Task: structure prediction
Amino acid sequence: MALLHILQYPHPGLREKALPITVFEKSITQLAENMLETMYEAPGIGLAATQVQVAKQLVVIDTSENKDSPLIIINPKIIDKSDVIVNEEGCLSFPGIYANVTRSERLILEYQDIKGEVQRLEADDLLAICIQHEMDHLIGKVFVDYLSPLKRNRIRKQLEKLQRGKS
Ligand code: K1U
Ligand code: ZN
Result:
């Protein structure tokens, strides 16, 4: 297994639109395993393939307390969603940045597992929020896109300052 590099905003790779996976070959399993390792190491509760510069519809998630319930979600589609809640979100592509985002509290998801078999999942609370956040990454959308231009600009400046401090 290997740790992957997570793109940092505003890298243009974060705006790429991911394509569906049609062949469930060994390289996809390897990508999923490397993404899980990268997510646990970060640490995070989710990671989308576009964040590691792979434009494929694959996300990994683990919202469990013991970090022992990995989910590999391929070609996800939300088939039903409930009313919305506001929750504070973070993102591994925006280190140190947190913002309130409005999302559905519950959803029903259809996706393919690592073998290509179609699965259905009912999710609520943090899992539902994380699924929506990761699916946004697959269409090139990031959580600050939900904020006002003023707040987005403030975040961009904060990140630039942090990145200048690193170099
Ligand atoms: O997509 C990502 O960058 C991962 C992101 C997922 C997410 C977090 C919160 C709300 C919605 C989606 C993260 O994992 S940020 C890090 C984080 O939330 C966390 C890290 C350690 C322990 C618990 C949470
Ligand atoms: Zn994110």
Summary: Strands lie at 46-48, 58-61, 71-81, 84-89, 99-104, 106-112, 118-124. The chain has three helices and seven strands. The chain has a mean pLDDT of 97. The pocket of K1U (ligand 1) is lined by residues 43-48, 89-93, 129-130, 133-134, 137 (CB under 6 Å).
